[in-house]
Design goal:
six-stranded parallel beta sheet, 6 strands, globular, alpha/beta, 7 helices, binds flavin mononucleotide
Length: about 220
């Protein structure tokens, strides 16, 4: 067997991990930090971000016409584009997407090239409730898939999250933590395969709107 020399090894995967809560004591930020630790442990590089870092006015076409896309949205778009994949840990508000997150998606979607297109994403949520914010993630899939993101089919939602963490930031339920670690591993494996070891023809049957070889789809760019 031929040994792979260090200079031939690919760069580690770069993963943006975004907490989509604005709260300082956010449960979703805690979940994002745990995901970051597990991802880093597997050798990938994490770019840690919080929606707090990207203050944005409500989307307004007149503001965009006058001033363009705000620098904070451009910064978020650049960080999405620089990563091979992104994670969002998002609260559920009224069984759907928090307004600040949807507003950020709307602003970033105005950038060209449109940064969400063809990026892989894994969705996480944490909530004190017994549903763990999972309905919000189903709602979040809609705009992301519309924008051409390859949203991983599996998601992770932590129910009763206010009681769900140890003092060191692990999950109190070790079985659940194993499940999170396994989900992250399989997700990273897919991202590596799809971004580093692309087959002759690259086709995701789950995303039928994207024709192989088509430069961009109308759906994802307009
Ligand atoms: C406006 C609003 C709506 C909410 N709706 C839901 C909901 O539908 N489902 C749920 O599980 N939790 C809901 N919650 C509770 C949040 O899950 C909880 O506040 C959570 O801690 C927010 O995430 P964070 O800790 O990351 O900020 C809601 C909270 C607010 C402020």
């Amino acid at each position: 067997m031929t040994a792979v020399s260090p200079q031939d090894r690919p760069e580690p995967l770069r993963i943006l991990v975004l907490s989509a809560s604005l709260r300082a004591e956010s449960l979703n930020t805690r979940l994002a930090l745990l995901a970051e630790r597990l991802i880093t442990g597997s050798g990938a590089v994490v770019d840690r971000a919080s929606l707090r870092d990207f203050p944005l006015p409500p989307y307004d076409g007149d503001v965009e016409d006058a001033d363009g896309v705000p620098a904070t949205a451009a910064d978020l778009g650049r960080r999405i584009a620089e990563a091979q994949a992104f994670l969002i840990a998002a609260p559920e508000y009224n069984a759907s997407i928090p307004g600040a997150l949807k507003n950020a998606l709307d602003w970033v979607s105005r950038l060209r090239p449109q940064p969400f297109k063809d990026r892989h994403a894994l969705l996480l949520s944490a909530s004190p409730s017994l549903v763990g914010g999972n309905r919000g993630l189903w709602a979040l899939r809609v705009p992301l898939e519309h924008l051409g993101t390859r949203v991983y089919p599996d998601m992770f939602s932590l129910a009763a999250a206010h009681q769900g963490f140890t003092d060191t930031g692990d999950l109190t339920d070790t079985g659940l933590q194993d499940r999170l670690a396994e989900t992250l591993q399989t997700f990273l494996g897919l991202v590596e395969a799809d971004t580093r070891y692309v087959c002759l023809e690259r086709r995701w049957y789950e995303f039928l709107g994207d024709r192989t070889g088509a430069p961009v789809t109308q759906r994802a760019e307009d």
